[in-house]
Predict the structure.
Amino acid sequence: MSEHIVSPKVYLAIFAALMIGTTLTVWAAFQNFGPFNIVIALGIATIKATLVVLYFMHARYSPKRTQLVIVCAIFWLAIMLGLTLSDYDTRPHEMQPGVSRLEHPIGGGSCVGG
Amino acid sequence: MHRTGDLYGQFETLEQQKQTASLGMWVFLVTEVLFFGGMFLTYTINRSAFSTAFGIGSNTLDIALGTGNTVVLIMSSLTMAMAVWSAQVGKKQLVSIFLIATLGLGTVFLGVKAIEYKQKFDHHLIPGHGFDMKYHPTHPMPGDDPKELALENKEVEEALAHDPDINFHGQLYFSLYFGMTGLHALHMIIGAGLLLWLIKGSFAGRFTPQYNTPVEIVGLYWHFVDIVWIFLFPLLYLIDRHR
């Protein structure tokens, strides 16, 4: 099993893609897409992160067991985010503007969008 | 421990040794993903509960500095990747050059972050006693844009009319801002230390096509820190910009 060497051309292409992603995300932030602003911002960030993992971090050319570890990280993160947010989202918190924070020490309410 | 050159006794080949080391680094990075994940979770829950205060807080950040820093950090990832390539193809001098470039770009990032923190201190935006979302014009700073500040003040006034607690919720945003960017910066400082160690090794000609594991491993760490910033930048800087 010999090592795969990623060429500088690939690195430069990925760098260019990351720069385009950064430009797009700043541009998109100034447009009004309503609730989709956050979806677009996180979508672009996820694509950028995936490119970094696959090429800069060589995940695409790594052994299967390394790839398994990466998938596990995403899976566990999904459990933590998914279960916690669905819990917060389904509890009947009341956050009324103007009510003292001391009466409602824990913030809640809808976790979708923002 | 029995050791032949760079090969430790428990491994058959350098290739196997390198794969083991990089697997170990990935396992560490999994714990880091969950560590930062917890903070992103806290951020998401508070942002959805206090979206007005978070929007105002986010708008006080300097988008030009934030975007510039994102570019600097991605460039440092490119030079880090190029350092790994240089080691793999045996260009020893290039390894040093690219490692120094990475360290330089990392330092620029931290410097800009320090300027941003200073600005927040000047504008009374440090959580705790004296925190005020409304800018105090008693200490105008040379870099302040009066139009921008007037707009921010108007926003805070309007929000205060609906919610007198906006200053409490604003502190939550800035606590998360300093907590998350602070821990990210701490990772960068540790990364800079690791780079110094690599640069020392590269001057001694330690990294060759046969043995370049330390460059590869520190590279994985550096790219991970880059990924954290890729998510921090839109979440902290780009809320409610379309006002």
